[in-house]
Amino acid sequence: MCPAEDRLLHPTRRRILQTTGGLTALGVLGNSASLPVTADPGTEQWAFETSNIRSSPTVVDGTVFVGSTDDHLYAVDAATGEQEWAFETDRWQSVNASPTVVDGTVFVGSHDHHLYAVDATTGEKQWAVETGDKLGSSPTVVDGTVFVGSWDTNLYAIDAATGDQEWTFETDDWIQSSPTVVDGTVFVGGGDNYLHAVDATTGEQEWVFETGDSVFSSPTVVNGTVFVGSIDTNLYAVDAATGDQEWIFETADSVLSSPTVVDGTVFVGSNDHHLYAVNAKKGDEQWAVETGEAIYSSPTVADGTVFVGSIDNNLYALSAETGEEQWVVETGSAVFSSPTVVDGTVFVGSADDNLYVLDAGVEGSTEGSRVHLGTPGHHGDWQYADQSTTYRAESEGTDSVPGFGVGSGITAIGATGYLLKRCLKHDSE
């Protein structure tokens, strides 16, 4: 077993929160444990204990939906941390993907090779579609169609109501990236070193953009530009219509984190231990903040604060303008999950077996390009069937479109899938 996997599967049991005001010991918390809400940023409201959580939480109508490595999808009361229901996939098969909720249905992929549609109220299965391998990609639902990638090298388009397959698009390697759909085009990264643009109706290739290594990061699209990271250490800006490169921003290690764009700035993490803020038009670095370890979590922004997890066990809250640290919370293990902020509350999973709910220190909710595009780990019910590469919030210089937040999307998902794939290869050798 490789060291990274061993560390994730055998986390410590400590529960320590660190804020700018000092350390607060919380002790070991069981399911639906809760603490009084306080005004101190980073204060825990409750923690829901399950197993290693790499999935990014989705919050809809007062319920948190999140996957776990214990082969379950959970629905948890957002106010109290009480379990509402648990949906079991095949035994010993992780649910690392982030769930998407549309019109009362939860869509989520599992390592048991299936894409599931589950009733959001009852947890009852509506349908299941089997693919040829694991699903770590999180589904995107647009105009009645579910788009999701599989380790079997295919991008799938599935009828959201029936589970019937509409088309498949085959790449040359596994797909861990979560697809983004804009103006009738599906954008998704592949292990084949390409960013793919595929017609959402027909499944025909529109263009491909080659990078120097696998693309597990999930793309985001703003004003006609696709932003995506690659294992080749770069963040790319690519013309959404043509596939031509607009600029490239180089980090010192792999970029598995998925970018989000807010007010003309791209925020993305790197395995070089840094969170970067990059000018969306020019590709110039605005600031960089170093954490103690790699960042696989994808950042989210709410009320001028960037929230992101690191495998140094911490969740960070940083000023979006300057990168200045607002507060830091330490969990008991790596934070692969991408945070979602709703009405001043942060929801995030940890490899220490807990879903944490913390005071965000801001009043707002997750915003930015991934809000508009409905990429994994969201808040609100996805209703944006007519997305455009230019939308009101960007043109007016603010990002206040209601609805979705970052998750992860790959968010944590691509990163952990990448590690697992390398670990499996290592073990087989």
TrEMBL record:
Residues 115-212, 219-292, 297-365 form the Pyrrolo-quinoline quinone repeat domain. PROSITE patterns: TAT (PS51318). SUPFAM superfamilies: Quinoprotein alcohol dehydrogenase-like. SMART domains: PQQ. InterPro entries: PQQ_b-propeller_rpt, PQQ_rpt_dom, Quinoprotein_ADH-like_sf, TAT_signal, WD40/YVTN_repeat-like_dom_sf. It comes from the Archaea. This is Pyrrolo-quinoline quinone repeat domain-containing protein. The lineage of its organism: Archaea, Methanobacteriati, Methanobacteriota, Stenosarchaea group, Halobacteria.
